[in-house]
Amino acid sequence: MKKLFSILLSCVLILSLAACGQEASPAREEETETATRTVVDSFGREVTIPAEVKTIVCTGSGALRMICYLQCADRLVGVEDCDKEYETSTLRDYAHVYSDSFQALPAIGKGGGTGNTAYVEELISLQPDVILSGYNEEALEELAQATGIPCVSIRAKSINFIDDSFYTAMRVAAEVLGVQKRCEEVLSYIDGCKADLAARTADIPDGDKPAVYAGAVTFSGAHGFTGTYSNFGPFMAIGARNVADEMGETGYFDADPEKIIAWDPDLIFLDPGNLDLVRDEYRTNPSFFASLRAVREGNLYACVSFNNYSTNVGYALADAYYAGTVMFPEQFADVDIVEKTGDILEFLLGDRYYDEMAADGLSFGVIDLEPAP
User: Which DSSP category does 98 fall into?
Assistant: First the structure.
């Protein structure tokens, strides 16, 4: 009888221990699943996110481009419609390189700006760990409330020549994704290009520099000849003498045609993607263009648009190098712009696709306002 009691007591103890083990295991799993950390985003917001971020989506201007530069496109579970539309176009560097994978992902928003154009139900269904966003702060808060998903701002201003807000946003994204090493490699590469560009022209007096004008720029859409920039990024990078800077504007503005005639720049750079608009203006008002010395002497050059859903960093760098070869041929004599553009694109996105840019009409070179017959 004592022996039977001992056996029964042993069984009870074993079952109790097993039960305790079964209760502890889910608790440990839950603790792992809910492990979190806090990051500070581009707006200075403190956002709680999972300790390890495995899945993401990007909303708004510029966000997805940064994730592609950071080589983290494999974590995407959806993309905006506007990035799917650039399947074959080279206007957006990242969307061109990753077009095949983007087409295979579900749409998570309309895209196209800094306001909230997300598809909330789709995001709730997909449940990414984090939403990385270029939205304005109000739209970001709205999206966070609607989805219950952590929303981290990586918004950059896209002004001047790859300014500090881009560096901040990249570092926020890298912290979220745990890819700080790649981030610093990208930022160091950009810094190296900036330093090289600036050093080439540092000793040239302003009086020895040609007067230059950037027209037909892209800013929130296409513009004709009078669409220009002060503090034009590629010109700033090489210390160019931009005639538009005297207006005291910041960024894009529409120049007075009479003022452009008064400036009479030595060299004119135009966005080749907007040449149809300029050629229409040329046909309508040929006397205006004939009054400009740069037009009469054939000193019109291509400056590929670097502003499409925020800054195409690779195009901005390539524009600066090409402008340097035109303005300061001696100082940039070693630069083959096709090779240099390929080098830049390969580093940022892993693809030397300048030939495809040229096929899309986004190449460097002299511009003729008379279209080919």
Answer: T
Q: Within 13 Å and on the Cβ side, how many CA atoms surround 312?
A: 27
Q: Are 59 and 141 contained in the same domain?
A: yes
Q: Residue 209: what residue type?
A: K
Are residues 243 and 347 located together in one domain of the fold?
Answer: yes
Q: Say whether both 106 and 226 belong to one domain.
A: no
pLDDT on residue 252: 87
Q: Does residue 268 share a domain with residue 213?
A: yes
Q: What is the pLDDT of residue 313?
A: 97
Per-residue pLDDT, 220: 82
Residues 320 and 225 in one domain: yes
pLDDT value at position 27?
Answer: 44
Angle at which helices 180-201 and 164-177 cross, to 10°: 160
- Report, as ranges of residue numbers, the positions in the chain whose pLDDT lies below 70: 1-33, 371-373
Are 67 and 56 within 8 A, CB to CB?
Answer: yes
Alpha-helix runs per DSSP H in the chain: 2-33, 63-69, 81-84, 93-97, 99-103, 120-126, 137-147, 164-177, 180-201, 233-237, 257-263, 275-284, 286-290, 293-296, 313-327, 337-349, 354-359
Range of the domain at 327: 204-359
Instruction: Please list the residues that pair with 302 across neighbouring strands.
Output: 270
79 falls within a domain: yes
